[in-house]
Amino acid sequence: TITAAEGQRLPRVSILAYSGDVMTVPGFGPIVLALSGMVYPAEVPLLADHQNNVNAIVGQGSPSIRSNQLFVDGNANTTTDAAKQIVDLAKSGHKFQASIGATPLESRRIAAGETVNVNGRTIKAEKPFLLVTKSKLREVTICALGCLSFCTTSDDGNGNESSSMRKNPGNAVS
Fold it and tell me: What is d(CA 22, CA 45) in angstroms, rounded to the nearest whole number?
């Protein structure tokens, strides 16, 4: 167990990690993850750019499904260069984006024109897509390009910083 020094607060992070809609994943094409079939640990790592190494650790957070969307709330650390850079850029108003790393466990193809009910919505396939009915969440990434963006970073005047990620409707789902 690693904890912050007493009296030292880590920046809080709240991320809308997956909206429940169709997303396009390079190498896989259009995908929908059924959140009802997603398993996840009590905490997941927050990484920079899906990099699987200790230098890319930004923090950790607790996943939860609310309103048929995947959220992760947690802390950013300030010890790795990637985390320092992300926290500093967020403080200056930079709008980051989010992506998730999940392992598909079961899936099926949805044909163009087919309609499915998933994640509290009805999706009519404009083109074929992969419906992942069971998956395992492995990590959430903070990145430059994705479908979600940081909107705010605030300080309550007591040195307590807070950042939040919310869906940016102007961005294409990717």
Answer: 24
3-state secondary structure of 172: coil
Contacts of 88 (CB under 8 A, 6+ apart): none
Q: What is the pLDDT of residues 112-153, one digit of tens each?
A: 999 999 999 999 999 999 999 999 999 999 887 764 333 333
Please tell me the pTM assigned to this model: 0.78
Give strand pairing partners of 104.
135
| Extended strands (E) in the chain | 12-18, 23-25, 29-33, 38-39, 44-48, 57-66, 69-76, 97-110, 115-118, 121-124, 129-143, 148-155, 161-167
Tokens of 45: 């790592």
Cα 126 to Cα 2, 4, 55, 82, 115: the distances in Å are 47, 49, 40, 38, 9
